[in-house]
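Sample A.
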Amino acid sequence: MHRKAIKVFSYAQSDVARREPVALIPNSGLLGRDAPLTLLWTTAPLTSLTLLSSVLVVVHALCFVATAQTGVQDIFGRSLNQRGITLVDWEGYLANPLIKFYVLPPTKAVLPGSATLTVTGARLYFDSPSNVSASGPGKTISLASATVGVAVRLSVFPDHDSLDEDYTLTIVFTGANNVKETNTVPIHVIDQDLQRTNDFVVTGNFDRDISGFFTNATRRALVRQAADDWSYFFRGMNLDPVPAGSETTYIWSNNFNGGYYFSNTNNYTGYLLYAYGTTNSAHRSGGEGSYSGGVQRSAGSPLGIKRSGGFEAEIYGNYNTLGWLLITNDNDWLVTGNLGNQTNDFYSIAHHEIGHALIFNPAHPGFNTAKIAGAFTSAAVTNYFGARVPIDATDHLNGVIDPESGQGAFGYEYYGNSPRKRWLITKLDLFCAQEVGYALRPSSAFASLFFHASALPAAAISIPFSYSLIADGGIPFYDWEITAGALPPGLALDPFTGALTGTPTTNGAFNFTVRVRDYHETGVGLSQSFTMSVAPPPAVQLALSIVGQNADSEAQLLLFGTMGQRQVIQASGDLRNWTPMATNASATNLFQFFETNRWQFPQRFYRAVLAL
């Protein structure tokens, strides 16, 4: 027959800060060999010298590795060597922002030195001077100062999918003594593309082509793609339908010498684009809105944009007779620079001339107004660019570089701070289109930084806490920091992710302010103030059972806690020196331990302490 006795004790929350046992209760029953046994619980935090030593060793090792690395810092002064660089592929087929970072030589490097940067990824590119290739971009910089970094910019050429990507930046530093140090930095690309249909519809019509140029299905597809890439960014604007026979467009003959007027044969809503092959002595293509056609109307009200236009594709090439490259793979964006002595990318030229047909042409009343004034002057344009955007005699934005992508704006595609290859829409182009009369639909490139407001959940001492602050918009390589007040002891804010994590060690109410900045050097960011409550630790109960008799007896300890809370069961023979017996490392709400040494447990006191 087994004899069994159980005692259960709860701690008093008012004793949370005490380091002495909160209760010393002699057992009133006969347990095991009839010796008195004591059940004890305390709130003293557990200090593990072994764990502390391990932490010190790890920190030392990390510092040792860092001294041999070429340093990489972001515009906020954060080290990126471990956390990596974040790029963004904005929604739509749009020139993406150049992400700036700084490169510093390794500690104790012999200067001056140089660093060669490479990335294995065909669509990535550095700012100029640099090189691009199918195996990835490369750039070499000189490093003369141990404390002043050299600025480098990196971006990704857009694609049409919605898949995030990961790459690796490799840096090879060579010192003045020819000693080389190599390290790598991760790169993550956030792809913000959405698979959605266009609100504004451009209808491509190839019926006027008598040259046979557009009998080629790939050429037709590239024209449609270029038109759709522009119209992706426009709202539907509730446009009035255009009845058959009501819209007239001029169709040019070869050499842009004469032609004829043609009326639409079908009803449509949006923009009707006639694409056809021509040739001329200069071997140039053309694009324009319809001077003879009507303006778009929305619920009867006239807009500053036309309803139709044309794209005249030079059949022999672009300012040469070398033909065309029909590039359909985004990885091949770098094949040609569209120079006069090169076979040109047909998409690039179609993109440009369709830009004239849709936006940058005096046939559109809105553009004509801006051209007469000599520049685009809307608040959206000047706030983004920092000044008026001039328009030259050929309807181009001559001398204008898009601020965020570093690429030449419309008509200035051969210039910029990045490799000049396939031509793209820039954010500035779209602000200009807005001034002409297009309404821009919401897309990620135009989303302002937004800090989502929320009340923080309550926390408790000894319970692991995790909560993520959320921001979106802007260039989503965010910097999070505490600008006023302080977090509860035991918690930390991840400056890259906005995650609040840790295990609180002090109860009370804590006030602090968090600021988030997106990746703009001049951005002031957004701030929110928070009050966070930390409660005392949840109650813990320790139950003791003595099971069996004589040689078969054992002490069974059952600990009742809160999920996430870690505790340690300790034993003592004198209430002064305590020995850890078992740790609830998995932080379960129930934890069981068996003391099987029948000669010791009758002489011991037991307690549970929090492992903080």
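Sample B.
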Amino acid sequence: MIEINRILIQLNTAIELANSDLPPKQNLALILLDNLFEVQLYKRIEHLLLLDRTTWYGGNRLYSKDSRNKVMRHYDHLLKVAKDAQIITEDELQLLKYVHNVRNDIYITRVQTLIRSFK
């Protein structure tokens, strides 16, 4: 219940910020939404990997140790595994990649602005 409450608060905050006329608030909305999607996707994939076990009668795992490690460190690999597992479609994958890249651009722009302000 606490997790659902956190998700709803984050989503509500993102919606409020997205409805603002101020670009910095709209940027924060995008960051919050991207984070929400990413965290939920990680949890879904983590659950998928927990169920992917090898037993004496079960054969090989679907996801290698290397693939499991990449999922937790590389967003592109997380999206690929989610698509391969039919959790998201190709269109959703492209949309999530686009939003994540925009979010990264916001971070980079903000950091560069902060660095310039200290000079």
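B remarks: Residues 2-117 form one domain. The CA atoms of residues 17 and 25 lie 5 Å apart.
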